[in-house]
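Subject: two folds for Thursday's group meeting

Dear M.,

Sorry for the delay on this. The cluster queue was jammed most of the week, so I only got both jobs back this morning. I'm pasting them in the order they finished. Each block is the input sequence followed by the predicted structure tokens. Could you check whether the formatting survives your parser before we put anything on slides? The first protein is the one we discussed after the seminar.
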Amino acid sequence: MTPEASQTLAQDLCRIFLGWKLRDDYEALLAIGEGSLRLDLRTGEAWCDGDPLPSLFIGQELRREIEKATSTSGALEGAELDAEFQTRRLWHRGEQVPSLEIACRVRLRIAGREVSAEASTQT
């Protein structure tokens, strides 16, 4: 995998994490409220503030994306996502509704090269 392709993959993984595929884990993160989430993108395992979490849908989705992108190269040595998140209450149509603010960073180690990408959003 070229350095450019590795960088694009890291950016895509951030975009996917912050995008529509997070919806299946959105309520779980709202229930936690805030914290530091870590995902091992090779296994799909997740931790929040160092404590293990049940399997998250988004972790498995990102693992599949990694497998698709690196299946021919076989050079993936490490893949992690770290995210800081917190719940905010926003006014919407006269009611306060919960919303997540998330900043994430993906780090990939492919064939001895490290790349990373960062993104944040309010969902």
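Second protein, same layout:
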Amino acid sequence: MAMSQHTKLRTYLEENPKWIGILFSALMLLSQVGTVAANGGSTNIGP
């Protein structure tokens, strides 16, 4: 079942190549947001 979904996505991306760039950009943005959120939760209290 997972392979058929993978094949459908691959076929769709082959027919619509602009979505490859859009998906790549979205994944990069999400990875950066996760890093910022993780760093925002930590604080340094000075001496």
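Two things I noticed about the second structure. DSSP finds two helices and no strands in the chain. Residues 18-40 form the longest helix (23 residues).

Cheers,
T.
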